[in-house]
Write a structure and sequence with these properties.
Blueprint (H helix, E strand, L loop, with lengths): L8 H23 L8 H9 L3 H14 L4 H13 L3 H12 L6 H13 L3 H17 L7 H13 L4 H14 L5 H13 L3 H14 L4 H9 L6 H14 L4 H13 L3 H14 L4 H13 L3 H11 L7 H13 L3 H14 L4 H13 L3 H14 L4 H13 L3 E4 L3 E5 L1 H26 L7 E6 L2 H9 L9 E3 L3 E5 L8 H17 L6 H15 L9 H8 L11 H4 L4 H35 L4 H8 L3 H18 L4 E2 L7 H9 L3 E2 H13 L3 H15 L9 H11 L2 H14 L4 H13 L3 H14 L4 H13 L3 H13 L5 H12 L4 H14 L4 H14 L4
Parallel strand pairs: 2-3, 3-5, 6-7
Antiparallel strand pairs: 1-2, 4-5
Length: 849
């Protein structure tokens, strides 16, 4: 805790004397300059709006005229620091501190200037002086800005953040004249702990009082860097609307553009920041990262050296470089950069937690978890570290299934249900895809299946709050959400993510997301036509309205997505591109492109080298995509005239067959349960439109109509068509299994039960169908296997399951048969058949007399 004592009378006398002397000096100084004395608020406004040179000139005049006013010293030094004149700022503050012994705020600025003037020992000495002053001097004027300064100093001195937040920052925010610094300090503290929600709320509260502060808008934008990018850009634009030269905001936008792989545009933003501050460390670090990502190591080293030219042991530089490499899945290189940052400052926690995540994603778990523990111990308020150590405790309860090529971590109860099916899918996939892409994977692939979506998000992104992902692959490690939490076809997800492992290994993780996703979706559909995606009416409308990305611009497809539908379209676009490339240029060309990417050749350059000129590719691909889109739905249009007046007018002048209007015309027959009429109208509609997936699909309704008419064979054929095209749809499969059981069709029972399990493996019904079918035909091995799974699911007829398992074990293992018989009787004490079986087993066990 910080101790305080009242300032003595002698201190006040000394301060008053100094103030009078400075005032007399300022009067004489003003006589030498006929211009009126600048107003400090006007100069602060110049600074806030980015008029840095004018602000610097006026701040210098103000300080010279009113050297007793600390505000001028702080303002001039802040402008010098913002514009990269670190040595000047340090010299100025060194002079200012000679007569301002107790100023915490001025010393904090001086400490920053000392670091960027590469006087690290001087910065440490200033912090010691702050500590000493706080401990021995006492009671400063507790105006809001002083509270903030003391709080910032306390954070640097290792005081618990919660204490600082409650006793300094929040107190300053509660004052009637709460300064922007109170919200900036509190919001920045939240960001340093990865608490983006708290940071956002704090900055928004500050903006209610200071709507013209670009730093607050920039802070608010930063709080969305891991969330809604549209919001981030909106708030960044608000900051630039006040100060178009705001370097930190330009750098933030550059970070966004780097994530979108729009490197040239990112460099433009960085250059705007460097025009204000040629030594901006984060801006130069981002330039270095871009150069490394473009396989220009010499250029990257040059930018890195310049970023470190002022503060030569600045850990933020390599941390920023490494973080950006890791965001592109260059985890090995990213980890190396974090180690460089830690070499400069061994306790730099941002680098330590990033290194922990990089190592975990590389499968180097012992060191990764150790680092996560160290960060959590050093900073219990770091949300990323807390989430990781909490997750590690949960992983200890998982079961690990080891195979020749995989290490599968899965919840114990789920492992006993579908763990073997996962193995049976992955091992053949390994052999096929590794051979197809001619790649060597030199370690076991780690697969983690999470029954809790929040745990999946922590493992994948460092914190919960990123819904919508079925799985994520880092290379030798990939994670998926348990099928217990979604209705996606989990087998297709598993196959999809492993395909990422193959292509990321071949390219050394140096491939754009669109290509990686496109290949995985393509290989899904090669494996099973019901997996992956199909052309939909929505995709058709997007393609024909010009919202399809050209191949040369595909990198922006995912980052520009503003909704789940946009993201799904990005996946489909990626698939269309990859299918186009495979269909027209073959596997050899694709392998060559992937190898070039691994050698550091840029995506578009690799396509030019191995496939065709980009202009030609773009033209041919867009034309092919439009042909595919036009083929969907026959002559029907899919626009909603009620939502688009222009298209409604066209419909009146030139009537077309609108699909949604055709559906509406069928509804009266459905409402009247006139099934014959409904059948005729739906069959006519489908004959014209063909098969349509998703919400526009009419085959499901047609199957229902067939069911009402008793046309079960036609119903089965129609539902089969759906199941063979859309492998994630459960309802058709459920009905197909019901029909197979009713018609006593064992091969169909096995087929549709397995299809059901591929979507929802924790359901009882498909396992029971398999179990009873195998048991009926005395297929003892499959019957025992499926029966054991059924027991894990705790079915209501568990006694009968035990009894049937006992029957299947009678010849194979009498002791196991007896155990199941006793368990059946334990569940149902009056189970007569079980008593008879038990007597038979006991009799068979008696030795011959």
């Amino acid at each position: 805790m910080l101790r305080t004592r009242p300032i003595t009378l002698s201190f006040y006398i000394t301060a008053i004397g100094a103030t009078l002397a400075a005032a007399l000096t300022s009067v004489h100084g003003q006589n030498d300059d006929e211009r009126p004395l600048p107003d400090i608020e006007d100069v602060q406004s110049l600074y806030r709006t980015g008029q840095y040179e004018k602000a610097l000139e006026e701040a210098s005049r103000g300080r010279e005229a009113q050297s007793w006013n600390e505000g001028w010293w702080r303002l001039q030094a802040s402008i010098l620091l913002e514009t990269g004149r670190y040595d000047e700022a340090y010299a100025l503050l060194t002079e200012g501190l000679q007569s301002r012994y107790f100023s915490i705020r001025l010393r904090l600025i001086a400490r920053e200037a000392a670091l960027f003037a590469n006087d690290v020992s001087g910065a440490a000495q200033i912090l010691q002086q702050i500590d000493s002053n706080l401990r021995r001097s006492g009671r400063y004027s507790y105006d809001p800005d002083s509270l903030v300064a003391i709080g910032e100093a306390a954070i640097l001195l290792g005081i618990e953040p919660r204490i600082v937040l409650e006793n300094f920052f929040k107190r300053a925010q509660s004052e009637a004249n709460a300064p922007a610094s109170a919200f900036l300090a509190s919001g920045s503290l939240a960001l340093s702990k990865s608490d983006f929600s708290l940071a956002s709320k704090t900055f928004q509260n500050g903006l209610k009082l200071h709507p013209d502060d670009p730093d607050l808008w920039h802070g608010l934008a930063r709080s969305f860097i891991e969330g809604n990018r549209a919001e981030m850009l909106k708030y960044a634009e608000n900051a630039l609307g006040i100060n178009e030269n705001h370097p930190s905001t330009r750098v933030l936008i550059a970070q966004h553009l780097i994530d979108a792989e729009s490197y040239d545009e990112a460099i433009e933003q960085i250059d705007l920041a460097l025009a204000v501050n040629p030594l901006h460390p984060e801006g130069l670090a981002l330039k270095a990262a871009i150069a490394y990502l473009r396989s220009n190591p010499d250029e990257g080293d040059e930018h890195r050296s310049r970023a470190l030219s002022s503060w030569r042991s600045n850990p933020h530089v390599d941390h920023t470089i490494g973080r950006n490499l890791s965001r592109k899945y260059w985890f090995k290189e990213g980890a190396a950069s974090q180690r460089l940052a830690l070499a400069y400052q061994h306790d730099f926690l941002p680098a330590k937690i990033q290194l922990a995540q990089d190592l975990l994603r590389l499968g180097r778990e012992d060191e990764g978890w150790e680092l996560a523990d160290a960060v959590h111990e050093a900073d219990p308020y770091n949300i990323s570290a807390y989430n990781l150590v909490t997750l590690r405790d949960k992983l200890d309860e998982f079961e690990t299934l080891e195979t020749e090529n995989f290490r599968i971590r899965i919840a114990k109860n789920e492992a006993r249900v579908y763990g073997q099916r996962a193995i049976d899918l992955l091992e053949p996939a390994y052999r096929y895809l590794v051979n197809r892409y001619q790649v060597e994977i030199d370690e076991k692939v780690t697969v983690e299946i999470y029954p809790n979506p929040a745990d999946f998000e922590v493992r994948t992104f460092g914190m919960p709050g990123n819904p919508g992902y079925l799985g994520v692959c880092f290379g030798p490690v990939f994670t998926i959400n348990s099928p217990a939490t979604s209705l996606a076809n989990w087998e297709s997800v598993l196959y999809h993510e492993f395909c990422h492992t193959v292509t990321l290994t071949l390219t050394r993780n140096r491939m754009p997301r669109w290509l990686s996703e496109g290949i995985s979706v393509y290989e899904e559909k090669e494996r099973d036509l019901s997996w992956g995606q199909m052309m939909t009416a929505g995709y058709k409308e997007r393609i024909l309205s010009g919202r399809m990305q050209a191949i040369s611009e595909m990198s922006a497809a995912f980052l520009s997505a503003q909704s789940g539908e946009d993201t799904q379209f990005a996946y489909y676009q990626s698939y269309l591109v990859v299918k186009f490339l495979f269909d027209h240029y073959g596997i050899e060309a694709m392998r060559a492109v992937l190898r070039d990417l691994g050698d550091g050749i840029a995506m578009n350059d690799a396509l030019e080298k191995r496939v065709a000129p980009l202009d030609e590719l773009d033209e041919r691909f867009l034309a092919a995509a439009k042909i595919q889109a036009q083929a969907l739905g026959g002559q029907f249009t899919f626009s909603d005239p009620t939502e688009n007046m222009f298209e409604a007018a066209i419909e009146i002048v030139s009537p077309k067959n609108n699909y949604f209007e055709a559906i509406e015309a069928i509804q009266p027959a459905i409402d009247a349960e006139d099934w014959e009429t409904a059948r005729e109208e739906i069959e006519a509609l489908i004959e014209k439109s063909g098969y349509l997936p998703g919400d526009e699909n009419m085959h499901g309704l047609l199957a229902y109509v067939y069911q009402q008419l008793g046309e079960i064979d036609l119903e089965r054929e129609t539902l089969t068509l759906i199941a063979e095209r859309e492998g994630h749809r459960l309802e058709p499969v459920q009905r197909l299994l019901e029909i197979a059981l009713d018609q006593d069709d064992p091969p169909a029972v096995v087929r549709w039960a397995n299809t059901w399990i591929a979507i929802k493996p924790l359901a009882i019904e498909p396992w029971r169908a398999l179990f009873t079918t195998h048991a009926r035909f005395q297929n003892d091995g499959p019957a025992i296997e499926t029966g054991n799974v059924l027991l894990e699911l705790d079915p209501p007829d568990i006694a009968n399951v035990h009894y049937t398992l006992a029957q299947r074990h009678t010849r194979r293992n009498p002791e196991t048969a007896k155990r199941h018989t006793l368990q059946a009787l334990e569940e149902a004490p009056r189970f007569r058949l079980a008593y008879e079986l038990l007597n038979e087993l006991n009799a068979n066990a008696q030795p011959d007399s």
